[in-house]
Write a structure and sequence with these properties.
The structure is a single chain. This protein has one domain. The chain contains five helices and seven strands. It starts with 15 loop residues before the first helix and ends with a helix. Helix 2 links the parallel strand 3 and strand 4. With 205 residues, the chain is α/β, with parallel strands linked by helices.
Length: 205
């Protein structure tokens, strides 16, 4: 199997099940501490986080370049706020699994295969996050970049409801009702309940 590098422009999309079981022999991070799916750098990422008994599942729009032991500033903020709110770990998940450091570079056409596998990954997270999983809505106004992102969010809410998920926000919502992005939050920001059903039904884009 071809394992792409950061410079690679082509990537074979593994199903979530294939990606979860694959182990890269060259990986140097501690698998007893981290969950990272796929287990190598690719143009998509399903899951990145730390392992614990009480995770905070954090939802951004799309992954960037962060990896185990090499978190970007957004992920550093996510980890800090998770620990500061009484969680022992964090899971970074995204509405859309395509890596793009610039959201303007996200797929213009909805990749339904990638979305389907991403939702299988989300269901896996829900199954392994205890009863009433805590989900932090943390995507900011970037959700407006592509119209298909609302459909992705709606699917996530439906799956979360099956597991009794509880949604949270941190900081103030935007004028259009979008939950605050983690990057510019205060270090001691507290989580508050967030009504995802109302957010979606209000037509926020």
């Amino acid at each position: 199997m071809h394992i792409p590098t950061k410079e690679s422009q082509k990537v074979e999309i593994l199903t979530f099940d294939e990606a979860r079981k694959y182990r890269d022999s060259s990986a140097v991070y501690d698998r007893d501490r981290w969950i990272y799916v796929p287990d190598f750098y690719s143009e998509y990422r399903y899951i990145l986080g730390t392992l614990g008994e009480k995770p905070l599942v954090t939802i951004g729009i799309n992954p960037s370049t962060a990896e185990p032991d090499n978190l970007d500033n957004t992920l550093k903020s996510v980890e800090r706020i998770a620990l500061g709110n009484g969680f022992d770990s964090f899971i970074m998940f995204n509405v859309y699994a395509q890596r793009a450091t610039n959201p303007d570079h996200m797929d213009r056409e909805f990749n339904r295969e990638l979305h389907r596998e991403n939702m299988l990954a989300f269901r896996y997270i829900m199954e392994h996050s205890g009863s009433s999983p805590a989900i932090w809505a943390a995507w900011g106004a970037i959700v407006e970049k592509r119209p298909y992102l609302r459909e992705c969010l709606s699917d996530m809410v439906s799956i979360g409801n099956e597991y009794g998920a509880v949604w949270y926000k941190a900081g103030k919502v935007s004028l259009k009702g979008h939950p605050h992005h983690p990057l510019y939050l205060k270090k001691d920001s507290l989580l508050e309940r967030f009504d995802m059903e109302s957010y979606l039904s209000a037509g926020a884009k």
